[in-house]
């Protein structure tokens, strides 16, 4: 029987679906026919595969070649089915023994010359292959390091169709495959880039640094207000350097997202640092939270486990910001399409920066040229519900010359990170067995249990509620932030000093800005 | 009276010409029924203005209705020449043809000062305006101002805090509260003084009306205090008009490098009086006897050490937290905590995110 099956896979959201590539050769008019709910790039595979096979010195017989990609209900996208189609056709021709392809997952794009090009989404696909019981995975050579991140499955990286053929028919000289399988050490050089950023490079700005430390320690969202050139983005960029390093599990999750977007570095596939994604204010909705006919993760998911930075917050389209609200709350993105809904992770620490007024100089009345109504209009571009999601708010003042030239040794990220890690450890222990990971994720229902106040704190908050014009929302946020400050302090209970400091970081209600 | 209302409504026709017309014909009613050719003969008005005057867009019945509505709304009209018309205004070069009033008019025998200044002022200017307003009120002096944002409003709020009378002269109809956020001030002034305008009720605030309204502010006052003004500022127009009207002008000094004090310094150089303290001013005005100054004893109260350090760092110009951290050498967390303590106790105020000023008067005071 001139029929064969090769296992491959496609990405659907964050999930991998295994695809069976079936090929059948029979007598009839010489055609190369492909079915299975294919998008146009998959349909074009027919031409690529035919030419690549010819360029691998194999002549296709003048017979009817039928290829089916199952399950037929799933939309197939991308060029990663080229290699499995080619191998399935060759197997049904008898060039490859069919049993060699059993429990082998194949993936890769073919060029007309027969060379194999790299594809995206390798990490989740290989993981799925292992879980499905495959023992080997044939994939593009350029993707091999990424595949190697998964334990317990053999990676065969190939750069040409002939190599894949050679491997499967055991005709390849062993030295040609040398270095193609097994693992080599991936060094930690990928971290070097992020290591160049350090809080020690930020001069002055003690108040902002402290706020960043608190935000990092509790995973709180942070809003930086300040005149242009005050170092808001400089500080935001350095926040990942004081976050605790991701756990192995988190690293894999982050890398998976990058893998699906095809953004994994060939030499250092595993992302061991926390991502920092800066989004320009012209970003579209689909680019930010993810989208497309078959949705791919957006910037929000690329920042998963790290920091999403929105500079010039007031310049963003209102609808784009509003769309962030739900994902920020739920820490995941769910995109619904008529053919199903897609899930992406989005556990980010949002950091946003904005000017205090259109000219940026408020409240320096000598320099500020804006009228109160201009300031109000400017601030109203960010909605109150969005501001409510910012747990901490602080202002970065203009830097004085003395600060720039200061000889004081600034604290390094390493020192700050140690304190942050200690606070995070306390949180992990406290929230063990719940869905909460950090203080920022506390719901208002959890507050009574975890943020109980003593009599002194109670009295203080009663006073503050009136004096500071707090609302129920700001009150809750102060409690959460105070919890983090207490954790940084190593204190089991929230005390008055913690509450006071937290109150200093509250987001002011818009109506009190600019008076 | 209805015909005076009609004449006041004719726009654009200067107050001077309206007065002349009324003088020439004896009453506004006569002006209403005047023939076009008589006007030509009189030679006060240009052809265009005559056409304007004779157009008479509303019928007498409509006028009467409008007039009744005004009375219902508690708005009085005081035409030039009426016995209630403020004496002080008859002295100025171009007295308004009619004044619309909600509340009372400033009494003739009560001394009055005008407190004017920038709308966009610093907390320093605002605080000073409050204090001067309060002190003037305490000494039994009426405070005249424009109810605008910033200095004007602060001066009038100060007068209200001091339990005195204050009068707001608007650049729009007296039934319109401009700026809108001063609605609380507007109602308070109405109860403890009055809202005045030469504009017809219902007229919106147009930029051109404000310099005109300034001459009424200075005209109603005996002394004009300029708290904060930029080099080019509407407050300087008021000061110039006050000088033309022969009133004394005092200016508040500020930091040499503050653009908002430049106008004041310029005035001082030109010979304006200098405001050293409310007490000093009252002595200059010869009113120190009735002045009851309340010295705040808050400063003497002992504060705990870090709070004390932070407090002494604060001033009436906003300081940001990073600056305070550097100045005091305290931990950022400690400084934040101290600041909130100060805010809760009423010694400090957060005027914009992370910018704090000293507050002298205790918590909960709003302007």
Would you give the CATH topology of the largest domain in chain A?
A: Rossmann fold
Shape of chain B: elongated
Largest sheet: number of strands, sense, barrel closure of chain A: 5 strands, parallel
Global geometry of chain A: elongated
State the order of secondary-structure elements of chain B, H for helix, E for strand. Answer: HHHHHHEHEEHEHEHEHEHEHEHHEHHEE
Largest sheet of chain B: 9 strands, mixed
What does this structure look like?
The complex is a heterodimer of chains A (515) and B (367). Chain A is of the alpha/beta class. Chain A has two domains: 175 residues, Ribosomal Protein S5, domain 2 (2-Layer Sandwich), CATH 3.30.230; 227 residues, 3-Layer(aba) Sandwich (Rossmann fold), CATH 3.40.50. Chain A has 22 helices and 16 strands. Chain A has a five-stranded parallel beta sheet. In chain A, α5 links the parallel β8 and β9. The N and C termini of chain A lie far apart (83 Å). Chain B has 17 helices and twelve strands. Chain B is an alpha/beta fold and 367 residues long. In chain B, the strands form two sheets. In chain B, strands 1-2-6-5-4-3-7-8-9 form a nine-stranded mixed beta sheet, sandwiched between helices. Chain B has three domains: 72 residues; 179 residues, Rossmann fold (3-Layer(aba) Sandwich); 61 residues, Winged helix-like DNA-binding domain superfamily/Winged helix DNA-binding domain (Arc Repressor Mutant, subunit A). Chain B starts with a helix and ends in a 9-residue tail after the last strand. The longest helix of chain B has 16 residues. Chain B is elongated. The interface between A and B is large, with 40 and 39 residues.
